[in-house]
Design a protein that fits this description.
Bound molecules: zinc ion
CATH class: Alpha Beta
CATH architecture: Roll
Structural class: alpha+beta
Shape: globular
């Protein structure tokens, strides 16, 4: 069994409009844009990262905004809900703020004993704010949201699956422990994680498979401390029969990917080197950063991208 996974690292989704996406995550949700770069496989598209002050693992929501992309259709084989952690007693504040921003899909309930406010992102993305009394992570507060209400990072994510058995086995192998079951949803928790510690598996045998598009999660990444641990995890997964990609340099972390039996794309990403490797922490995300191989084409790439601020 793998013992080096520390919870989530980041969640990467697709959007249809870079400016709208940037506004929603910085102004409405109050996250910090910790990096603006491009899709390393397609530099005509931004890659935007939002998180806490440093873009700590377990806080980072990332987006590929493909302009005019068609909306995805929700279904099984994907992440159905990305869950952020907020302090206890703050859901009323958040509901009011989201209503003021015309957010869709607002719905309040309780999940595994915690209060939850579900809402949709600008492309119909499935999100929830979940209250926690003991999340001690320091929030980013640069956007007019005080420290006692701000988002702490992810609490976890819910995967919508046709059948959960094989994914349950995989999560167990990755070090997650099966906790409670509530209706169709089974919760898994990683011991000793970074705060983004839960994965919920929803069994939805009657639901059709998702069609990916704007508002869909492209992949979900789990954190390991460093490259050495990543290689150990890669070997363990491959020895168990998973087809894992070689290690890929993403400039701010190292990544490996594998498709899980339920259809969701998993990534294992390193906490090193981090988002301050090419700019000062005080100025993260302010200017477009490019991987070295694209620097010679900076003028053309910049001309092709819509500026984020109007
Ligand atoms: Zn990723």
């Amino acid at each position: 069994m793998i013992k080096d996974i520390k919870g989530l690292h980041h969640v990467t989704s697709m959007a249809s409009d870079a400016r709208q996406n940037n506004r929603f995550f910085t102004d409405t949700l109050g996250l910090r844009r910790v990096k603006q770069t491009v899709n390393f496989d397609d530099p005509s598209v931004y890659h935007l990262y939002y998180g806490d002050e440093n873009g700590s693992a377990g806080t980072v929501m990332t987006y590929f905004p493909f302009e005019q992309m068609m909306r995805g259709r929700a279904g099984v084989g994907e992440v159905g809900e990305t869950q952020f952690s907020v302090p206890k007693g703050t859901l009323a504040f958040w509901r009011e703020r989201l209503v003021a921003q015309n957010a869709a899909g607002l719905q309040e309930d309780t999940v595994f004993g915690a209060k939850r406010l579900r809402f949709n992102g600008p492309d119909g993305d499935g999100f929830a704010l979940i209250e926690s009394a003991d999340d001690e992570r320091l929030p980013w507060t640069g956007n007019g949201i005080s420290a006692d209400t701000a988002i702490r990072g992810f609490s976890g994510a819910r995967l919508n699956l046709h059948d959960t058995a094989a994914t349950e086995e995989l999560l167990g192998f990755m070090g997650y422990q099966k906790a409670e079951k509530e209706g169709d949803v089974t919760r898994f928790i990683i011991p000793g994680g970074n705060g983004a510690d839960t994965i919920d598996l929803a069994a939805l045998p009657q639901t059709p498979f998702a069609r990916q598009g704007a508002g869909s999660v492209h992949h979900i990444a789990f954190a390991v401390e460093n490259r050495e641990k990543q290689l150990e995890v890669r070997k363990a997964l491959m020895d168990t029969g998973y087809q894992v990609t070689p290690v890929i340099d993403r400039d701010y972390f190292w990544a490996i990917y594998f498709r899980t039996p339920g259809g969701v794309l998993f990534e294992i990403a390193t906490n090193e080197p981090g988002f301050n490797r090419d700019e000062d922490t005080a100025h993260l995300g302010e200017v477009l950063k490019l991987p070295t191989r694209y620097e010679p084409f900076r003028d053309r790439i910049e001309a092709n991208l819509e500026p984020l601020a109007a």
